[in-house]
TrEMBL record:
Residues 259-270, 294-310 have a biased composition (Basic residues). InterPro entries: Endonuclease-VIII_DNA-bd, FPG_N, H2TH_FPG, Ribosomal_uS13-like_H2TH. The gene is Neil1. It holds the Pfam family Neil1-DNA_bind. Residues 76-161 form the Formamidopyrimidine-DNA glycosylase H2TH DNA-binding domain. SMART domains: H2TH. This is Formamidopyrimidine-DNA glycosylase H2TH DNA-binding domain-containing protein. GO terms for molecular function: damaged DNA binding; DNA-(apurinic or apyrimidinic site) endonuclease activity; hydrolase activity, hydrolyzing N-glycosyl compounds; zinc ion binding. It comes from the Eukaryota. The lineage of its organism: Eukaryota, Metazoa, Chordata, Craniata, Vertebrata. SUPFAM superfamilies: Glucocorticoid receptor-like (DNA-binding domain) (SSF57716), S13-like H2TH domain (SSF46946). Residues 273-288 have a biased composition (Polar residues). Belongs to the FPG family. Residues 311-326 have a biased composition (Basic and acidic residues). Gene3D superfamilies: 1.10.8.50, MutM-like, N-terminal (3.20.190.10).
Length: 326
């Protein structure tokens, strides 16, 4: 779903593109759109957009108000947003982990999945810490009345609290621009945003699913309200994502693998031993091989030598003067 900065960028893009143009006829739905038809037709009209989002579906409502049940905008209505949160800390929504409370649009209108990860990461707040525990401390943190306005602003920028980051972090994304609403197209339009991310989907960070099934990225301890049985998964770097075949030579062998290799060397399988022994004989010996089955005795072997016939000793009695052949 688009978050606050994306809606702001989209409305700005529409207003800049349609400025000074006059449209006529009916509104035509895109062929790839799954949204319902827009029943509107006029001979002449202007188009403008405001950053008003209805979850899952959206509509343009020039000069309209937020959908009922949504709180003040974190971008454009910061003071009202902060007051709305601190005034309603008794709500049961703040019994939940802070990562889940940040997605409640009644209080954090415009905060979504990547923004909550970046905000909590900057403050080193465990995502599954109780929301009320985190936010109650902000009720006591008020700037000294002796500070000048410029000193108060400087202190906020140097050490912003969670609610202030809910306002400042989306503003940073808006100032980046791009994300499909800039002059560039394709991957180049998202390069600045990817470089800006510190936690969300970044290699080395851990992740868990909250009770709504949304993935929260974080670093360190997840917090006391982390889901039971949930296994934290760490984002691997590009080097560790290489295939097993590419990294096989660099992997250390386990003790079991080493012992198996030693046993295989001492006691090779019979078939392998016979093959290796036969191969050695063929390479080192020049004696003729045994005749193939079905060949008659005395037939030339593959080496070209004729087999020598057996000599039968002469056992006949010899007469006088006759000597034996030697």
């Amino acid at each position: 779903m688009p978050e606050g900065p994306e809606l702001h960028l989209a409305s700005h893009f529409v207003n800049e593109t349609c400025k000074g143009l006059v449209f006529g006829g009916c509104v035509e739905k895109s062929s790839v759109s799954r949204n319902p038809e827009v029943p509107f037709e006029s001979s002449a009209y202007h188009i403008s957009a405001l950053a008003r989002d209805i979850r899952r579906f959206g509509h343009w409502d020039p000069g309209g108000e937020w959908q009922p049940g949504r709180g003040p905008c974190v971008l454009l209505e910061y003071e009202r947003f902060r007051e709305n949160v601190l005034r309603n800390l008794s709500d049961k929504a703040f019994d939940r982990p802070i990562c889940e409370a940040l997605l409640d649009q009644r209080f954090f209108n415009g905060i979504g999945n990547y923004l909550r990860a970046e905000i909590l990461y900057r403050l080193k707040i465990p995502p599954f810490e109780k929301a009320r525990t985190v936010l109650e401390a902000l009720q006591q943190c008020r700037p000294s009345p002796e500070l000048t306005l410029s000193q108060k602003i400087k202190a906020k920028l140097q050490n912003p609290d969670l609610l202030e980051l809910c306002h400042l972090v989306p503003k940073e994304v808006v100032q980046l621009g791009g994300k499909g609403y800039g002059p560039e197209r394709g991957e180049e339009d998202f390069a600045a945003f990817r470089a800006w991310l510190r936690c969300y989907g970044v290699p080395g960070m851990s992740s868990l699913r909250d009770r709504h099934g949304r993935t929260i990225w974080f670093q360190g301890d997840p917090g006391p309200l982390a889901p039971k049985g949930g296994r934290s998964q760490k984002k691997k770097s590009q080097e560790t994502q290489l295939g097993a075949e590419d990294r096989k030579e660099d992997l250390p062998l386990s003790s079991k693998s080493v012992s198996r290799m030693r046993r295989a060397r001492k006691h090779p399988p019979k078939r392998i031993a016979q093959q290796s022994e036969g191969a050695g004989l063929q390479q080192n010996q020049e004696t003729p091989t045994a005749p193939e089955k079905g060949k008659r005795r005395g037939q030339r072997a593959s080496t070209g030598h004729r087999r020598r016939p057996k000599t039968i000793p002469d056992t006949r009695p010899r007469e006088a003067g006759e000597s034996s052949a030697s």
